[in-house]
Amino acid sequence: MDFAKARINMVEQQVRPWDVLDMRVLDVMETLPRERFMPEPYQALAYADSEIPLGHGEYTLPPVVIGRLLQAVAPQPTETVLEIGTGSGYVTGCLGQLAAHVDSVERIDELRLQARNTLVDLGIDNTQPRTATVTREWTPPRERYDVIVLTGAMTEYDDFLEQHLTLGGRLFVITGDGPIMEANLITRTTEDHCRHDTLFETRVKPLVGFEPQPAFEF
């Protein structure tokens, strides 16, 4: 399979038509070999517009969502990023190509190890995947980040990560339950206020600990 051609087709036929026009983002997605991050049985599907199973009940984000995510948070070469949900490591690698440093957190150590090994093999040395389960009481590796990205959803939004944004920092999170969920960009405008903007509709798996709560029955 011609992965280079498939990569270009992914960008031109999927990502760009979904209003991803940031050339830095398009260049990264056109050059980073997504197939290297996929389980071997699914490498031929690396550039399909779909989720890909990673094992342990986890899935990748579709390329179009990744493109919109990267464009929304717009990591700059001097900025530090926190990613919650390393998964395959592909989004980690994209963020690493755009930002100065990426701290990435994954609750499944096997996925974290696989992602780390792939990133090292590709020479992406400004990312640090860690194993941890994120809760509302969890403390990130650094006090403040310019960008925070959650690759899983929160059924109901919890603002516990907003305190870890720098002034002007951006947080990407998908919220909701049911067939339609909303991608949101949260920007810290002052020390005491964050602006919330809705970006697009999609559907992804909730983060562990942030799933729908069972309805109370009498």
What topology does this entry show?
Layout: H1 3-15, H2 23-31, E1 53-55, E2 58-59, H3 63-73, E3 80-84, H4 90-98, E4 101-106, H5 109-121, E5 127-131, E6 145-154, E7 165-175, E8 181-190, E9 193-202
Parallel strand pairs: 3-4, 3-6, 4-5, 6-7
Antiparallel strand pairs: 1-2, 7-8, 8-9
Helix pairs in contact: 1-2, 1-3
Characteristics of this structure?
25% helix, 218 residues, 28% strand, 5 helices, Rossmann fold, 7-stranded mixed β-sheet, two-stranded antiparallel sheet
Structural class, by secondary structure, is alpha/beta
Helix content: 25-40%
The largest beta-sheet arranges its strands as 5-4-3-6-7-8-9
The termini sit apart by 57 Å
Shape: globular
- Domain unit count: 1
Mind summarizing the main beta sheet?
A: 7 strands, mixed
Alpha plus pi helix count: 5
Based on the structure, what is the oligomeric state of the protein chains?
Answer: single chain
Overall pLDDT, averaged? 95
Radius of gyration from the CA trace? 17 Å
Beta-strand residue percentage:
25-35%
For the record, the CATH class is Alpha Beta
Brief summary:
With 218 residues, the chain is an alpha/beta fold. Helix content is 25%, strand content 28%.
Would you kindly provide a written description of the structure presented here, covering whatever features stand out?
It is a single chain. Helices cover 25% and strands 28% of the residues. The chain is globular and about 50 Å long. By secondary structure, it is an alpha/beta fold. The longest helix is centred in the first third of the chain and has 13 residues, at 3-15. Strands 5-4-3-6-7-8-9 form a seven-stranded mixed β-sheet, covered by helices on one side. It contains five helices and nine strands. It has a single domain, classed as Rossmann fold (3-Layer(aba) Sandwich).
